[in-house]
Here is the input.
Amino acid sequence: MGEFNKQKYDNQYAKENYDRCIFNVPKGQKAVIEAHWKAKGYKSLNAYVNDLITQDMGRTGEKQGIHIQNSNGVVIGGNNNNGIVIGDIKGNVNM
Here is the structure.
């Protein structure tokens, strides 16, 4: 039996469970954006962007929503008949 390859497992899991979105920003903005999301208390750029999208979709009344689970296992978006559930990293939840 071969050894367990965690990197291969993680890559396969990500491929099966996530869509990848790549975006570009003007030169020098990456550092500015990183300082901003860190100052706001986010653990990653990914968490920050997902939260922004979820909040924007909630403001615009989108019903389909997106389901996001943060690194603490908290669902900060959802797809249900009641609309979008939004929570922030501080534990505040809006329905």
